[in-house]
Amino acid sequence: MKLLKIQQILEAEILVEADNMDKEIRVAFSADLISDVLAMCCEQALLITGMTHVQVIKAARICDLSAVVFVRGKRPGPEVIELAKHNGIPVLLSRLTMYEASGLLFSAGLSGINQISDPH
Amino acid sequence: MNEQSREEQSLFLEFPLESLDFMRAGEASSELKQRLKKLGVKPELVRRAAIAAYEAEMNVIIHARKGTMRVEITPARLLILVEDEGPGIIDIEQAMQEGFSTASQAIRELGFGAGMGLSNIKRCADDLVIQSTPDQGTRLQITINIEKSDR
Question: Does pLDDT of B40 surpass 50?
Fold first, then answer.
């Protein structure tokens, strides 16, 4: 699913724009714990999260996440936006809850990660 | 390959780690990741190394007083050695269980303390050796094979 379509489905504000909003997102997952992000991350993945501190972007950078959506209208601080921009990680902000955002994307055909990915 | 040419092809990196330094937290592993990328290491290996290093780095920042991450890169493998001075791990088997954490509430509010750190490291590593002495510190030796994974 294209990032632009995700933004439209979630009626999300673009906080950090992607170089290419048509970039393809293969899977998505929701997490509110950094280690869960690191356990689940895989290629071309979207993270849906309620965490808005800078460590989220650092974790996203570590595991090459394709984009991050902050839910429930929680707006991250400028240092978060700055780090995401610097690392080329697109960031969206949605007013929806994590459940609603995840459900809408899943219903629209964006796959989840059905098991913790084996990095080997 | 003799010892000398092995030596010539090795790259050593060292990163000091400070307790509760959340400003710099994650920078060591991020720098390691950039270095590995530049060396042309396969992306999947870069990701595994970065995740293992990040978890180990955060463990030191969250739990220990101070520590060091040393990395040796050879054509055959990555060796990430993380040593700290700190409380140590009383029961390593228990600490390896997913969900077990001794992190404080304040740390958990930052999204850490999921109790997934050591198991995430083990998942990413080809070999993990944990040595710990309570009230002294912990030593993690993480090995990621390059040749084997590339075959």
Answer: yes
